[in-house]
UniProtKB/TrEMBL annotation:
It comes from Rugosimonospora africana. InterPro entries: AB_hydrolase_fold, TEII, Thioesterase. Pfam families: Thioesterase. Transmembrane segments: none annotated. Coiled coil: none annotated. It comes from the Bacteria. One of its GO terms (biological process) is lipid biosynthetic process. Belongs to the thioesterase family. Residues 11-192 form the Thioesterase domain. This is Thioesterase.
Length: 203
């Protein structure tokens, strides 16, 4: 399901609110759910996955588990530089500096003119997301953290424990914020182990 401003909806205005994105995604996802399921998200995707899960719980359709990667918990405020408010030049430089694997799209000025509004909206959604208290999901949460992530600490990720009434686990992998790419094989191995370890009656 593509979000506004992404993939096949590239020229639509992107939503700059995690709650707004979740409101748009959850109803359509609920209509397609016909079996037990997990939700996984990285960075902004983790925040969206949590908010979608909370809405699906209200629909009586809780996930089997939530897997969150590279994201501070909802009740942890963003600290440090707010990237979405930077000038074009500084914003692009900051995003380029986050890449552990060079992204040629970030060096194509014509393409940047198209994708920059969506990039800013995504960063604004992630950087402004905050819940003083996070409702506890009736599903286990497994969190993943990059050991060299300069923006999000292991303690920030560990706070996801308050967002579940069931089990919580935290795994730290080598790499920075984009360890999802640099440590992909390790991450996939852990995700597979998490999924297969749950009781069969829940799968």
């Amino acid at each position: 399901m593509a979000l506004a401003g992404h993939d096949g909806r590239l020229f639509e205005q992107a939503n700059d609110s995690v709650a707004g994105i979740a409101d748009a995604v959850a109803p359509g996802l609920a209509a397609d759910i016909d079996r037990p399921y997990f939700l996984f998200g990285h960075s902004l995707g983790a925040m969206i996955a949590y908010e979608v899960a909370a809405r699906l719980v209200r629909y009586g359709m809780p996930p089997v588990g939530l897997l969150v990667s590279g994201a501070r918990a909802p009740q942890v405020r963003k600290r440090g530089t707010v990237l979405h408010e930077l000038s074009r030049r500084d914003f692009i430089a900051a995003v380029r500096g986050m890449q552990e694997v060079p992204n040629p799209n970030l060096h194509n000025d014509d393409l940047l003119d198209v994708i920059l509004p969506t990039m800013r909206a995504d960063f604004k959604a992630a950087e402004t997301y905050f819940r003083p208290v996070c409702p506890a999901l009736p599903a286990p949460i497994v969190a993943f953290h990059g050991s060299q992530d300069s923006d999000i600490s292991e303690a920030d990720v560990g706070e996801w424990a308050a967002c579940t009434s069931e089990a919580f686990a935290l795994h730290t992998l080598p790499g920075g914020h984009l360890f999802i790419t640099s440590a992909e094989s390790q991450l996939l191995g852990l995700v597979e182990a998490v999924v297969t370890a749950l009781p069969s009656k829940r799968r």
